[in-house]
Prior knowledge:
Structural class: alpha+beta
Strand order of the largest sheet: 2-6-5-4-7
Shape: globular
Number of strands: 9
Number of helices: 3
Radius of gyration: 17 Å
Amino acid sequence: MTIPLPGLDLQQLGPEQSLRAFIGWWPDAQTRFYLAEQAVQAQVIYGGRMMHADHFHLTLAFLDGSSVSALQALAENMADWSVPAITLDLTLRDVFEKPQVVWAGPDESQRQALTLLDQWHEDIWARLTALGWTQPPRRFRPHVSLLRHARIAADQSHRHALPTQAFVGDGVGLIVSVPGEQRSQYHLAATVNPGRAVS
């Protein structure tokens, strides 16, 4: 398992400090290379800011602002989590208009993969709810963001078929977003043991 991010020791931070965090599924190097190529092509159309190649991920749960103490408890809990075996292809480029995001993901024909992802997402949120988080009402749409701050014309179809690329997962981690001078930097605070993958 290789999530190419700097580590962050939550024990070194004040327990009441608040950090933006999420749980993400990281693709392997080949998948990240493919996503970088797709981001370059999308930027020609939409402008915007490309995601850093090491930041490409599929968000399983967005935690927004969370206290360090809550994240510490979550990090300890994640040691007992498992990763389901999911075969997933990236086949589609589309947009989220309001947040101005261009993304890549699976199309609706991949019913088994989408069903398994939905189940995984709900399982994660059941665990998070038990730890005190509240699941947001938004629909879960599995995707990998390619561009942010894109110029997206409203009320137009932006769906575009992509050359098929398997999403090969290379780790699931608790990621904390640390503000920087120019952009936020992702830091890895905890991982799910890859040896606990289940089918």
